[in-house]
Predict the 3D structure of the following.
Amino acid sequence: MNVLLIGSGGREHALAWKLAQSPKLGKLFAAPGNPGIAEHAQLVAIDPADHRATVDFCIKNSIELVVIGPEAPLVDGLADNLRTMGFPVFGPNRIPAQLEGSKGFTKDLCARHGIPTARYVRASDKLAAEAALGDFGLPVVIKADGLAAGKGVIIAETAEEAKAALDTMFEGGFGGAGAEVVIEQFLTGEEVSFFALSDGKTVIPFGSAQDHKRVGDGDTGPNTGGMGAYSPASILTPALEERVMAEIIRPTVAALASEGTPYSGILFAGLMLTPDGPSLIEYNARFGDPECQVLLMRLESDLLELAYATARGTLAEAEAPRFSDQTALTVVMAAKGYPATPETGGSIGGLGGIDGAKVFQAGTALSDGELVASGGRVLAVTALGADAAEAQHAAYAAVAAIDFPTGFYRRDIGWREVARLTANP
Ligand code: AMP
Ligand code: GLY
């Protein structure tokens, strides 16, 4: 089977690496890809924003499955156009992708279907938003409605901070994403990420993870796309997972199906484990980056078969995904300056000698045949271990062997899980 993979990050390198292990794979193409992805796929210079060109490529190259990695093409309706032309796609259509594309869409869906989530108000002008602030205590959470690359959420500790956040959003600080805002109640608890495959009707759990959003050790500094992750997250016990499936995931998939806009692809739920039970913080319409790297490191099943069954609507007949009992942990190596202005062009060496870990490439490029940094997050160094402590040890041993002088990384990835191990050996 010939497959086209859309995307160019560490997530897509992990997807390419895993798809390439399938005996059913014919030729793998990636658009636009990166040097790591090129180890498994033929890179093609089509622009996924050009739907016509993408469809033409699929026709010419007998593509039987398109796997869409990032959210932007999903929210932009690439999957709709491919499906209309008869191509099976792993990834939701434009409207169900609004689960990620519009925070207000998701909150309203939760409200209609009794799905647990923080109390909220939507507002599309500043006066209304300021008036609504009075209905919430402090801290209060203010979110740009649209896609903002993980940066559109402000947790305001004071009324002044809340007003300043609204000023920023309505003055275009988050571009079009902030033309409408969601104001919501601040939830307490521990955060966990949960994944499920949905073909629109059948929905199957696909593992848990925890990531580290802040740039600095001890969860300090600005938010990033994610500086590291591990899977599974033992805090999401089997009993809690069943509650998440029953109270959040299945009702969401059923709601979208009943509204005539079924969700097909991977559904990524950001959850808060509150004292009252799991509550939905947000949905993403794709795999997390770097959560994908740790999930796929543990996946023992054939990803191509699962993605194809998801795309074809035959998940009910597919074999359930099997995961290793081991823990996978990934450490992101970023370019200095990230998340503000990363320093690009720095050389990366030592990847050839890595043993006991898999290095997924994100913001890398070739310059005169040498591998250099070309983006904020550059590498995701990923290892398996019997537990989080062993996986952490193996990942950091590999990090130490990589020569990336203009890079940096957090030294405490996995601390929560390692602390739990120490507390309950
Ligand atoms: P989101 O982009 O919606 O995942 O929000 C980014 C981060 O903001 C989350 O990972 C949480 O750490 C935090 N956050 C979002 N909503 C809430 C909430 N209602 N209560 C507490 N923290 C939140
Ligand atoms: N690592 C968080 C995300 O992919 O949204």
User: Anything to note?
Assistant: The mean pLDDT is 95. The pocket of glycine (ligand 2) is lined by residues 150, 211, 225-226, 284, 288-289, 291 (CB under 6 Å).
